[in-house]
Amino acid sequence: MYKTDSNLENGPLYSKVNSPSPETKPHGHQHSSMSRSLTLLFATACGMSVANIYFAQPLLDRLSNDFGIDHSVIGVVITITQIFYGLGLLLLVPLGDLLNQRRLIVGQMLLSTIALIIVGTAFSSVVLFVGMALVGLLAVVTQTLVAYAANIASPTERGRVVGIVTSGIVIGILLARTFAGILTDLAGWRSVYIVSAALMLLLASLFFKVLPVVEREVKSITYLQLIRSTFTLFIQERTLRVRSVLALLIFADFSILWTSLVLPLSAPPFALSYSAIGAFGLVGVAGALAAASAGKLADRGYGQRTTGSALLLLLISWLFISYLQQTIVALVVGIVLLDLAVQAIHVTNQTMILPLHPEARSRLTAGYMMFYSIGSASGSIASTQIYAHFGWGGVSLLGASVSALALLFWALSIRK
Q1: What residues contact residue 96 under an 8 Å CB cut-off, 6+ apart?
Q2: At what angle do helices 36-51 and 189-210 cross, to 10 degrees?
Q3: Which of 197, 205, 206, 202 is nearest to 55 (CA)?
Q4: What is the tens place of the pLDDT at every residue in 141-153?
Q5: Torsions phi, psi for 245 (to 5 deg)
Q6: How far apart are the first and last CA of the chain?
Q7: What is the pTM of this model?
Q8: Alpha-carbon gap, residue 199 to 150, rounded angstroms
Q9: Close Cβ partners of 384 (under 8 Å, ≥ 6 residues apart)
């Protein structure tokens, strides 16, 4: 049992925490560590949930043909999904500070199952668009999972747990195209969403059975006050502002690579098949897994050093990536370095911001991830435009410039 102090709106939302579950046995004023199996289950759920909004990217051609949507318009499927994901970050994730997180997670997973079935059985473009919007909106359960994991983990191991759980998110993004491609080849594009719906239902059932029961007394606060306090956090916490800007820049860099990479690889002289291009996602997974230990370093007080080293690595990665036209090996090295750097910074960011207000972790996560969304969208738009006018050299220069800007911003931020 513990109490927290906060000047957000009407004070802390929760005045006490009871953790009767075996997974979160009290130890003084701290929770016990999450088991490795539960941590991996969280990571898996995060990966599956976030993958749902990326499945459509390689399927646009098929969706265009099946629903009679012009190729110049079909991209709106991705836009709708991303817009509603952003709305979910603002409107749904903060509810984790107000409602029972266990019920919220299971409920969102069940609703995600329904949304995926709507997409997989859509009979018109209108139904498809509605289903995609719901998929994007409900995919933010990933951020509720991150905040919940931080709540039930031991403070001394919070960084390690957050590192593993957020690695699941990056891996889910990287493998979404591969997953969608294999299932589409085997059983058509609809099978991608039906199988994902079945997996989400299975995960919801597992979480209903194994999630620790964390009961909190909720103080009187309206939903509007809850949302407004999400913005108030940016005024109060400099660390949140700095780390959010870094998130915007590193995920812009991430999108600059992964959005435009298919363009040169699918064109001569490479002319790789979709399956071969999807395999590069597996390469990225290696980097993301290697970065999971960044949370441990942040736990030990090395957050700034880890950030600086990773940002330098991010800049160096573009040197290798720029040699794509000369050798695929250089690209592979660059991908590993870039994904390692991005994930290391992302894990460190969350490890540093989540302890700021223990009673407001969902709002901290929501605010931080909104910058992630802005960065991802900006990187995607910029990379395709730059490639169209300046080719892969222009994309590489853009990525390196964003990396250099992030490194400069970080260097200036630690001197103040």
Answers
A1: 104, 144, 147, 148, 361, 362, 365
A2: 150
A3: 197
A4: 999 998 888 888 8
A5: -65, -40
A6: 37
A7: 0.80
A8: 24
A9: 259, 260, 263
